[in-house]
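Researcher: Next entry in the queue.
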Amino acid sequence: MALTSTETQLEQAAQLIESKQQADGKFPELSELLHASSSGEYEAAIPAEWQVVTKRRVVALPDALFEQYDLLECRCFMGLFPEIGRAWITVDHRLFLWNYEDEGDFYSFEGQEQVIVSVGLVRPRAGVFVEAVTHVLVVATPLEVFLLGVGHKAGARGGEVTLYATQISVAADGVAMTSIAGTRDGRVFMAGNDGGLYEFEYRAADGWLSKRARKVDLTATVASYFVPTFLAGRREAAALALAVDDERRLVYVLLQDASIRVYWLGAQGAEFVLAHHHRSVGSAAALLCPQFNEGTDAPFEIVSLHVIPRGESRALALVAVTGGGSRVYFSTEARAQRLYGGGTGAARPAAFEVVHVRLAPEGGAVPRALRVHAAFCGGGTALLAHAWSEDHDAVVGAAPASAQILARAARQPRAGLVELASAARVEGRTWAVAELGAAPTRSELDAAHTRNDLATVDARPTRAFAVLTNAGVTVLEQQRPVDMLRALLAQPAVADAQLRAFVGAHGLDEACAMCLTLLCADDAARAGLHVQNAARRVLFELGGVPRVAAAPAFAAAAARVELSGRHNGLALYLARVLQPVWAQAALAGDGARLRVGIAPAALAAVQERLRRLQRFINGNQRFVPDQLSQLPPQAPGRPGSDADAARCWQAEAASLAALYELLVHAAEAAAFLGLLADFNLPAVSAALAPEQRQALAGTPFGRLVCGERAACRELIVALIGSQLRQHVSIASLSDVLSQRCASLFSVADVALYKALEALHAAQACDEGGEAAALAREALGLLTGIAASLPVAQLRDACAAFEALAQPGAVAALALACAAQSDPQDAALAFWRDGAPAGDAREAAYRRRVACYRCVLDMLARRGDAAPDARFLQQLPRDDALFQFALFDWLLERGHAALLFQMHAPLVEQYLLVEPRTPEKGDMLWHFFVHAGQCGKAACVLRELACARDLDLALARRIEYLSLAISNAKVAVDAVRTRGALPPEHEADGLGALLRECEDQLEIAQVQLEIQQQLRAQDAPEAPALDRRLYTVSELYDRFAEPLRLWDAMLLIFRASNHDDAELVADIWLTILRTVLDDAQRTGLMAVGSKVAQLGARLHPSAAAFPPPLIAGILLDLALERASEYAPGFIGCTLLHARVPHAAVFDALSALYAKRASQPGSAAAELLAREVAALASSWVDANGPARSPLDSPGSPPPDESLPVMDVDSALSQYIINATLNNNIDLKNELQRVQSRLRQIF
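Model: Structure for this entry, 1240 residues:
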């Protein structure tokens, strides 16, 4: 089916959107950017004062905590738990959980007396705690390690936190735990200052032979179990930090000597195996990067370890931040795996090696020699806490410069990592840095657009970090290019040079997309009026104009149109707005029900952004600039510039219109999905057919916007139907649909559902008059939208009208739908052309037939033995195709007689239209006879008899010819007896038709004779004679002659009047000899019977049945079988063959003259007796009594015998008999002559 122009534009816009999304998805992953052994390229931002992170707010420690700090006697530690929105602080034996979001809110725990040396927040083991416990707080002292349950309820300003005592603890045995970490399935690992690594195992209750909790030394040797504790020396360097990689099932341990151990937890996470121990990280890094240790004499130190999720990098697993600010990247895959893939997620690591060194940030305000003591790395961003002074730290931030990376990737095969770097001062000494908010999911990390900070539609920064110092918490926000643009535009006087530099660095398309991000922000994130005006100016004044791209030299292709940055920016922004939902399944289901497949929050966010963009475009008509005022400058003397410019603007206007159409449809689709969720889509979808649910399930949002509009309408129908079934008014629902989904729910839809509501009201109405009025109202509404009325709704409406006893309304509505959906009558032309396969008109024909089916089904449900002829005659006659469908329906149900009572011209057209069938042919000639047009009936009958495309038996074809002859005779008589002067040419034409039919009938009878003979022989050629009528030549050449059908050959000679005496003689001799030689037959008697049988059919054809020839053959056979001969055999045989006496006498006389050369021969005597018997037979037939030779089947009397010639012949025969002294013959001849003379 051909797409409409709107559908084509939507498809083109969708392709553009998808191309933009694919381009965003090609941003390199971290391992691709770090393909070399080392890197250290940093660039300055525009404007120069821009920072990677900026302070959002600073929260000072509460005074109560400062007071506790003043009471410090021994040790103080602190850290961050961003999972529950708290900072933890220990002062000797006291533990404080501080809600830095609420500033003054903190929780203190003083339930023990030992100095707290370490605190960790881990996931609880399944089945141990109640559901309210979401996390477990592990508190370590030198004497024991115990657990506290943590219940966290998310909410504004940090939510609520509740601590639960668990009574679960283990002895620490004097080991101070320096770091605590847990896995996602609840295993707890602790690093001790003795160099050991421990696991805190616990369960819900004590077992028979085991305690509820125990501390397992994972790194102890067998000998250590037999050596007293006070004699056991320090085993190795103390562990400083732990990092757990749940994806790869690994635990990384940073030791005090700057070495790193890697433990594998097994494929199921239940083991603990030392996989690798990298003892020379500094040396390996120096080999990869000679500049690694330049400019510092300090010993090599690793500050922190950070796991790299697989979604962020396939090949890199860990990054270590050094004291000098460098980042050392490790891989757990062998080189072949890194290059060609093949590593599995939870397999034992094949290697642990340094693969890349990233030098410390530099340039701008970044300190030259960094002294890092805390760090954060994740999501491509690095934050390094540098000791600026005794009272202040500098947080050095580094983030990928996406624009520069993409620009290099477009120019060279492999782009390296380029970062922007800056420094922000914070008060106090930094203890911890952590990212706030929920951790990104695996799918979010896998998506390249999350690594590309250009691909954003949020006007506010999306990433925030907490920096905990001994003075409080500083919340930092990561700045993106759009934030750089906001800062640039916020300046009181924006310099054009700076703007152009920014556009040059990021590209015009990206700059325009950023402007739309700022202009379409929500109220909470909307920039000031000054920034909005500046962004609007950049978009409209610096957004560029479409132009013809310069074609390469010797290029044969037509010049390509490059659209403006404003257009491309809109496409980029729209693609990024739709990216979270575009490829997702809008509708999901299990086969029985459907549900909305997109999360409500994501759907609402996309819908709101689309609506804001739509409002912005609607409020800025300059989005498609004035073509006359902004035409590109025309080159003097260059022909065609105006035409090229006009073509460029037309292309841009068309593409912008398509994007706007896509925007509207996407916003409406999002609103529609939200509406379906509100109205309980699973229950509504249960009313859909299973194949409809199957087709809708899994439909991506993008296809719902562009290609599955019919699916939306099906769901609307189901939604309205569910409301009507619950007897709920649909007025409010119709208003909501028309407001939110105007393109899905049009004015016609409103009329449709108002009509359906009126029909439901009519069915519930008790008063007949009111019900009829409501039905008329519904019919008027439905007739007005009949062209767009879906067939399913048409069926429902017709069923409602039928239930209200309104058959006329059913017919009127169905025929209106058929007519309005096909105003050009393409369906009727398609039907008259024989419904050719693959024709474009077939769709219109099928819709009209579906409309007619509503009327025909109503007639079928009326239950009458035969339809009411008067009702049928009242049906509209102006729709010929409906009348033809009605005629088909009548024929299928055996009501052919009713056809003669219908509109005569249409009946004749219907019966004449291809394809022809015997039934329609029978109906047509009966119709002509019923109308008194026997001549036309004769023509139809003759065509039926001669038709080669109809499966008719030969007997039926002969019947048709017989009927054609009868009707032709009636027609000829009617013309000749007409009162006025008859048209002679009409009579002549009918006469010619009559003669042709008679000739064809004669040939057809021969064909029937052949077929019967073949069937008697079970010959395979017999069925072929049913297929058509053959000519005499075909019958002879194809059947009679090859198959030796002698009787048929004679019949063919008679029909064709073909004269071949020799061939005929051979055929007759063969036939009669065959009969004579047949032992099952009675000799000459059988021969006589055969001649009489054939002669009766062949006479008076001289070509097929010459009496002299037949008499001669009979004479020879009689002489041959003299013992079987009886006088009169030859003559009686010819007489039974309907040969007149005179013709028989002539044949015998001629034969006597030819064969009886000797009067006394046997032939002469036999022929004389034959003549005597013939004369006696004739006398008996014409006298008072019949001859004994005559049988009851003898022919009627014949008065044509030449008596004088017979008398003369008898006299001659008497003389010959006297001469030959044949007294018996003489007496017989004299007796016959005497009788002859007595009568005549």
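Model: Confidence is low (pLDDT under 50) at residues 625-640, 1185-1197.
Researcher: Noted, moving on.
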